[in-house]
Amino acid sequence: MAGIQLVGSMLASAHPRPCGLCGDVRRLSRAHVPPQVAGNAASVLRAPDVIDGGVRRAGRWSQGGMWVRGLCRDCNSLAGIAYDRAYADFAGQVARLTSPLARRLAVIPGEPPGVRFAPGLVARCVLFGMFAINPRLRILFPDLAADLRKETPAGAGPVRWPDQLLLRVGRSHPSLPREGVLSSGVWSMRVLTERVVHFSFGDIVFAPLVWSLVPAHSGSERDGLGPQITKRLGDASGWVHYGPDRTSVDLRSLTRTFPSMAHPLHVKMDDWVELLTRDGSDADAVMVFGRLP
Question: Where are the extended beta strands (E) located within 107-164?
């Protein structure tokens, strides 16, 4: 392994540390992001991002799905019981209705697929995953963390959504059907071709969906750095205001756009400059690569 350098954290250590959602210092459980019932199971491979002899590549692949030790057992179980199935149903419908054949048969090309789902439950599932892969979210947005934990029954709300945040959603890129990634603390700027930036608190890429939790006002355009690459994705921030009784909401009534996006970590490395948080704590950048069957 000489000469091989790990680029980002995997959050794989079993040593006790604070839960990304409740903050209790415990031995944390494996939080599969997205949930196992959505296909993120044993057949999915997981690997770190490494530099080997000056060349960046995925590290050693292991089976078991894309996961991090980011949540305690109680918080992880809450998500599994209350939200995972709704997410799996949403992802399955999107996969069917955005297949090549479905897109050719679309009445209005480019329109979001006619998926009917439970937006509140899906958004909560995603947010539990975001807090798992970025433990600092609990420090930055404590009210959001507290609201997600205390809901009774789960998903009932209300959840105070921070004005500083946007939850973006779209399709994973069709040319990268087997590529997944979990990342946090990675800020990127494309310096070749069209200049764009990617400032994100957390990203979840797992076909057929891509999710990004981003600052509502990054100031990148004002500073001449370029627009956010996630700007054209759908805005799912308001989904948390839907209760558990809303289980059949049409996606087309929630967003006018549902495009695909290739994550910067999946494209040509020479095109992007990356800044990673690294201070030897849970604030370190997280990178977990996935390979879907």
Answer: 116-117
